[in-house]
Amino acid sequence: MSSLNKFIFKYLVYCPVLLIRREWIFGHLSRLKRSQYYSRKAIEQIQLEKLNRLLSHARQTAPYYKGLPADKLESLADLRNIPFLEKDTLRENAEQLYSNREGLKPRPKTTGGSTGAAVTLRKSAEGMAQELAATWRGYSWAGIDIGDKQARFWGVPHEKKDRLRAKLIDFVANRTRLSAFAFSESDFGKYLKNLEKFKPKYFYGYVSMIRQFAEYIESEGISPSIELVAIITTAEVLTQSDRETIERVFGCKVYNEYGCGEVGTIAHECEFGGLHLTSENILVELVDDNGNPVSSGEAGEIVVTDLVNYSMPLIRYKIRDYGEFSEKECTCGLSLPCLERVFGREYDYLVNSRGDRFHGEFFLYIVENLAKSGQTFRGVQFVQYPDLSIVVRLVGKNLDRDFLKDFFQQALTEKMKDVIDVSVELVREIEREHSGKLRVVKRISAPNH
Length: 449
What we know:
Blueprint: H1 2-21, H2 26-35, H3 40-61, H4 87-92, H5 94-97, E1 107-111, E2 119-123, H6 125-140, E3 150-154, H7 160-172, E4 175-179, H8 185-198, E5 202-206, H9 207-219, E6 230-234, H10 240-250, E7 253-260, E8 264-269, E9 275-277, E10 282-287, E11 300-306, E12 317-325, E13 338-343, E14 345-347, E15 349-351, E16 357-359, H11 360-371, E17 379-384, E18 390-395, H12 401-416, E19 422-426, E20 438-443
Parallel strand pairs: 3-4, 3-5, 5-6, 6-7, 14-20, 17-20, 18-19
Antiparallel strand pairs: 1-2, 7-8, 8-9, 9-13, 10-11, 11-12, 12-13, 15-16, 17-18
Helix pairs in contact: 2-6, 9-10
């Protein structure tokens, strides 16, 4: 029955949608499955050729890049001579970054970004197809194929129109969605019943929620009748403790995924634990505070160039995460380079007086609605204190504090179904943690006595 279900969704639902959207992935997927075994030198040559084509296209069709050099780069190292693209620049100069070439069939993409302020961009249909192909290649390392049933521990949009769109996408992808935005132990019980009926082949979603679901099952002494092939975690740092807990409870391997909304998938974990970069689509640099390449074995800020998005070229884009390249050869046989670790991103969950939990991404949907009100801001942070009060910190110019207080007071009280004491602070910047992490949503626990 499961094989029939997979056949129906892969060939009669998913593939027709790809054709309609002109995002046919299978030629790209075949090439990626070959190139993952190419030598490092051959992969770097692919990157250089794609990079030069992208630079020429950007210079000729995107006003922001009209000052790019006309000469081809001789090596990937020459990319250092091109300025970085900052998130604020992308947000404030989006129109200048759009390509004016016709026929690219751009798709709009909106992401909260690591500072919480929304970033809206475009990606060409061809670029989306290559992004999807890289994603499915990464999933194949975990034993997952197109059409396999997925349980998605993810956000549910607040607006009705957006919720309907999410339901349609979930249907096409053969997945059920479990809200990570507001959940309690009673919700976990309902989720478990739904999953035992749906019988997913794999989980996908936020580390924190999947771990909390695992802890609920373990604490209740439940033996779930769910047979999973793999669990793919994303969007948050996966600790060794997270991995061990999730694998122990569900009896399958956890595979980490790293990416960002602006460029899509960046790296996927193989069965031997290597976090392999999608080097054919994305060029990744690590730089120090002065913008120089870090030395071998050192951590640095992650800078990406999307080699396949011609609708809105993102060249040397600083995504405000930090990482470290692996110096070891992965034993899996893939020649794609690996990240040793990624850090700089963390969302806590906040709670109401009943103990219901609200995942950090939940609050970014509220921020997206705020952006529609005309308030212009560059960053946001939610901090909850032991008395359950919430402070919202915003970075921006000419912000209306009274309007913002009323907005967040109403939105948080309504969405969290509780009377929440909300205050607003207008700040010059959102400070990072000592570890380098920038926490958009942060819960401060009461001190132990």
